[in-house]
Amino acid sequence: MQPNGASSPSDRDYQGQGHAGDLVQYALKAALHISEVIGAVGVVTHPLDDAVREFYRQFGFEDLPFDPRRAMIVRMVDLEREFGQKQ
Questions:
Q1: Most buried one in 34, 49, 56, 81, CB count within 10 A?
Q2: pLDDT exceeds cutoff 90 at 17
Q3: Structural domain boundaries enclosing 73
Q4: CB distance 17 to 51 below 8 Å
C-alpha cells in the first residue's frame, strides 16, 4: 500500500504491454554504443527458464555452446546489423 492507504499497482498490471521488450532493446542499444569505447564483443545473459530463453531469442540471443549454465549471447556485430551502423 502507498502511504495514503491506496493500493499500488502490481507488477502483473504491467505485464503483456511490451515494457520488457522495450527495456531490453534500450539496453542492447546502450551496450552497442558503449562497446565502441570498451571494445565489448557481445552481451551475455543467463535466462532463468525456457520461457525467458525464448524471450531473449527474439532479440538475437543464441545459446553459448558448452556452457553448463546455459548462458546466451548476442554479438555486437549482430546488434550493428539490427540497429543499423554503429551509433
A1: 56
A2: no
A3: 40-87
A4: no
